Structures are given as structure tokens and as C-alpha cells.
Amino acid sequence: MHIIESGNVAAANGVKLAKVQVVAAYPITPQTPLTEKLSEFVDAGEMDAQYIPVESEHSALAVCIAASSAGSRTFTATSANGLLYMNEQLHWAAGARLPIVMCVVNRGIGAPWTVWNDHQDAISQRDTGWIQVYCSDHQQIIDTVLKAFYLAETVNVPVMVCYDGYILSHTYMPFDIPTQADVDKFLPPFKPAYALNPGQPANLNTVTLPDIRPDVRGNMAPGYMEIRHNLHTDMRNAIDVMADINKKFENVFGRNGNPYIEEYKCDDAEFVAICLGSLSYHLRDVVDILREEGISVGVMGLRLYRPFPDQAVRDALSARKGVIVFEKALSYGNQGALYADIKSALYAAENQPTVHNYILGLGGREIKTDQLVECLRNSCTQPETIDDTPQWIGLKL
Amino acid sequence: MTEKTTILNLPEDELVHPGNRACAGCGLSIVYRIGLKALGRDTILVVPPSCLTVLQGLYPIAATQLPCLNVTFASTAAAATGVLGALRAQKNESTIVAAWAGDGGTSDIGLQALSGACERGEDFIFICYDNEAYMNTGVQRSGTTPQGVITTTTPFSGKAQKKKDVPSIIAAHNIDYVATASASYPLDLYDKIVKAKTIKGPKYIHVHTPCPAGWGFNSRYTVKLGKLAVETGLFDLYEIENGKFTLTGASEKLIGKERKPVAEYFSTQSRFRALSEEMIDNIQKETDAKWAEYNKNAS
């Protein structure tokens, strides 16, 4: 069924169709309408789930961690400082290998307060052991929520579905809500490897020692370092698993898309702009303008940020003359985090393009098309003239 | 309280394995052993970092026969909520969810989550074993450390502030059952947990738990000192059922009777060595005033 609704409502419909059993959430702008919608679904009896209105984001993820450990499919959502308040729980959920799905409605972080969009919230949590997928439109939001449960429950790693606050969360756009029957064909019920159960007691997340230890039967059990290694390995494997899930999704719903990179006019492009989230669609207009000027440029939206699809990035970028990374986040005192990741992926490439880094849109600073045109034109016509330090777009010092 | 449990009809089933990592004379080992007997096998435990984390054993060996979820320090009651949510989603209405935290995990870092869960009316039993400091990290002051006590973060003059009254804070949430108990009166504790199992909604049990290493006494006196805390009227055994306060067990027997002087309790533990005569007098006066109120209400 095609409807015109907000990105938050698209996400809520994905959660409902995924038959999530336990939802816990705490309100924060711009995530709030998503959880309001879920409470509405539950209260109206349209969704058979426990909706738990907790007293903080820390507790929201605690509820999900425990409910997932007890064998239920769980969901939460947050933004900005709410995500940061979850920080230790993010690590805990990944370390405990729980397939929780969370929507991160991207917003800048205080201080000073801002409620507007950038990506510093999710990017600052990139090393928590969560898979991070970014969406560019409402169809991607609802589809990604469904795929996220499949992925999380296949590799036992939690997944963040990230989309831009206001730009996607509060704007209205047409999208298709799949039927429950089709979703049930795609997404099997959650079957945990172990769930808390008095009939089969186990002590979960106990204290480990630096070395491995034998269990009561004398068999060696993995220690902390092995557990960490397994998380890393399974996250790397998730890259291939995503491709399989995408194929399965296409078989059921007839739509697909590259799970790692969404390309626009890149086939013959000498230069490629790359970024996360809805900005890549904004840059399509910019690419069209520059193409008319005769500049050979395309744009890529990176869908998957963690695990980093370095092979796909290398394949997509290594033969280009220049790569221009646009970022709504920054690793203070260094560069854009995405920029550093892309340069790292290209280190192994035979033909290394020049790579430029633009920081823009922090705290919702307006991103004007003519600014993007000018910056991208400069980078494409004078690829050698910009040094390694990030250039700021729209900065008014 | 209905029929009281005695040593003769206490269940023989042991749910805690011997050879666990508790210190000699640990009050928590009594509370835990008796508590699990009362909870029974159809229980899921939720435990934050505390001495209990260590007592229960190091991966991959566990000292308990109940399923247990170890959670982050601040999240105990929220995690118990999550287990309950999953059980409700799975139509399981019989399994008991018991959160089991120390005094720091309850009164300090865990209080917000506990308050939230009580306000939401979650159907769980929260057991706080109060050994009156952060014992697992080496005896730092907590919200429930009594006034004057020497800890490693109140090293010379002792703690200036008074003990936080957590049961009263929880009772202010208007939940149906709040009780206190002591490691030294295990059967009273047992009966209170058994009663809590029959009540819907949040149940809170605050258990005074002597700690030889943290309090500075010989490990053979754990039970004796726990009793002395009650007999001096410093720690009182009571229940608040549907808002009604009732002294129970050994504390009930003190109504209208002369209590042992608090100085006797203080003299038995090195943690009280910074208490001056004047401070002890003040604490005695406060204790007498509290008991005058109890006696008045009882008559």
C-alpha cells in the first residue's frame, strides 16, 4: 500500500510489520513521533507488543537488552544525547551479542544544545560493536528496519538504522508499506540461540579473566579476548550476509538496491562525491548541474558504515580521479571519520584518487545547493589544490 | 504474616553451590542462600555489579542454579522490566523476576531505574542487600553508609552524612509491599520473600547484611552483629503493606522494651572508631526518639 507519511511513521510501520514483541523508549526530539506512533499501534491493539515507557534512554536499552536475553524481538529508538546516554549499554548489547534494532534519528549533540540534524551522534558511537546502516529516503527507512531484524538475528549483532532528523523524520514522502503476508515470508520469527529460562539455567555476562578457563567438564571456554575477536569476525561476515538478505528481500518485495553503496551517475564519472544519509540525494541535483557544465562527476550514498565495506568502497572508487567526502560529523582534532575510513580503504588500491574532505551541516546549518555546486566544482577542476585538512562549508566566522 | 517458617520446614533444596567466591563470614551468602530457597527454581535473577557478581563465580563457572542476567550498574530495575516484558510477550505469568543489588547499586547509581520501575508498577521483587558501603570495590562510602563510618573514601573523620532511608523512598512510590530484613534473621527474610511472591506489582526488600571485611569484625560474629543492630534499635525489621507500617519479628518484640545501647554495637566494629562520645550520644537520642514514636503508634 502506497501512502504519504513522515520518515518516523515509515520506521514505526517497519517495526510493527516486524512483529516486535518488546518496545522500550524515552522521548527525545526528533525521534519522538516514531515512539508515539508505536505506543498508538500498541494501545489501539494493532500491534501485539509490550510498550514500556521507561524513565531514560539508559533504561530503554536496558529493557531491550534484558528482553532480548529472555528471547523476545526488541526495538528502541533515540537521537543525539539520548544515544550518548545509552553508551555503556550499546557496548553491553553488542558484547552480549543481542540482535536489538534501534532507529537513530540523527541529531547534533550538545553542548551547546541543538535539536537539528547532523551525524555526530551515531558517528561518535561507531566503535560500540553495532552495525550502522544509513537511509536516504522513507522507503529505505521502512525496508531497512525489516532487513535490520533479519541481519541482526542472523549474525547476532545489534543494528542501528540511522536517518536524518527533520530532513527525513518529519518530512512527508510517498512510500510503500508492504503487506504483513509478504513481511512474514521474508522475516522468520526470532529464534534465540539461548534465552533466560529456569528450566535451563545459565549465568549470562559474568566476570571473565584475562585468560581462557575450563568449564566444569574440563572443556576450555573462550575468554574475553576470544569473545571480542568473535564479535569482530561476525561483524565482518555481516557484509556478505547483507548481500544475501538483499537478494531475499528482492525476491519477496521486488525492490532491492546495493546494500553498501547507492550510486548516481557514477558509471563513467572521473570524480565521485560520497556521503552518508539524505545528503546524497541533495547531491544528485548538484551532480546534474555540474554534468551540464561538462564535469564528469557522480555521487555515492554510503549505506553501510559499520562494518565498513572497504572492498566495495575500493572497487567503487579506486579508478576515479578524485573522491570528495561530504560529512556532517567530525573527529575533533583530526578529520572527518568517514574521510579517514575512505582514505584507509583506498590505501590498498592500485590507482589512488585524490580525496577531499568537506564538513557541513553541523547542528542543522543550512546546506545550500549553490555552495555544494561551488565546492564540488572546485574539487573536480582543481583536484590537487586542496590539502588534507577538512574544508568547512557554510562556516560564518 | 501467616504460618512462620522454621528450620524444620525450610526447603532442603540448595540453589547456591558450595565453594563459591564469597569471603569467610559473608552476610550476603546467608541472604543469598535463604533468598533463593524462598524464590524457588522458577525464577530469573537480574544482578548488577556487586559482591554477588563475584560470589556467583567467574566465567564459565556459576555458583547458582537459577538463570541470571548480569547487567550494567545503573540498570538493574530496568533490566528486570525487560525480562518481565519478554515473559509477558511469551505469555509466561508464573516465572518470578528478582532483581538483586547491593546498597550502592540500589541507593545510588540504580535509584533512578528502580524509581521508574516502581512507578510503572512492574511485577518484580527487588532485593537490596545493604552492607553499607561499596564492598566489592574495597569499602568506599555509599548512600546507605551510616554517619561516622570510616571507609576508604571517608578515611579519617568518617562519613559526615546520615544513612539514606531507601525503604522510605521506595514506599513513597505507593507500592504494595516494602519490607526490611536482616541476614541474622534468615527465616524472617525467607517468609518476607515468600509473601512478596504472592503480591502483584513491585516488591522491595531491604536486607541489612554484615560484612566482616568492610566493617572490621571477626568473621565469626556476622550473625551476632546483625542481631545487635536490631537489638539496639538501629536497624529495624518491618513491613509496609498497602501503606501500613508494622514492626516484625525481633523488632516487634522490642516494642515497649528496653533496647541495648547503640554504643555496644559501635564498639564491636573498627569502622566506627571515629565516632566521638558526643556523636554516639546523638545517635542514641535519635534512636530513642524513633522508638518513642514506634511505641506510641503501637499503643
Q: Can you describe this structure in just a few lines?
A:
The complex is a heterodimer of chains A (397) and B (299). Chain A has 397 residues and is an alpha/beta fold. Chain A has helices spanning 7-17, 32-43, 57-69, 80-85, 87-95, 120-123, 138-155, 180-186, 224-253, 279-292, 310-317, 337-346, 369-381; strands at residues 2-6, 22-25, 50-53, 74-78, 101-106, 131-134, 159-164, 172-176, 203-204, 213-214, 220-221, 261-264, 271-276, 297-302, 304-306, 322-327, 354-359, 391-392.
Explain what you see.
The complex is a heterodimer of chains A (397) and B (299). In chain A, strand 17, helix 13 and strand 18 form a beta-alpha-beta unit. Helix content of chain A is 39%, strand content 20%. Chain A contains 13 helices and 18 strands. Chain A has two domains: 185 residues, Rossmann fold; 132 residues, 3-Layer(aba) Sandwich (Rossmann fold), CATH 3.40.50. Chain B has one domain: Thiamin diphosphate (ThDP)-binding fold, Pyr/PP domains (Rossmann fold). Chain B is 37% helix and 14% strand. An eight-stranded mixed beta sheet of chain B has the order 2-1-3-4-6-5-7-8, sandwiched between helices. In chain B, a hairpin with a 2-residue loop joins strand 7 and strand 8. The model of chain B has no long low-confidence stretch (mean pLDDT 97). Strand 9 of chain A pairs parallel with strand 2 of chain B, so a sheet runs across the interface.
What are the defining features of this structure?
heterodimer; A: 397 residues; alpha/beta; Rossmann fold; seven-stranded mixed beta sheet; six-stranded mixed beta sheet; 13 helices; 18 strands; 20% strand; B: 299 residues; 12 helices
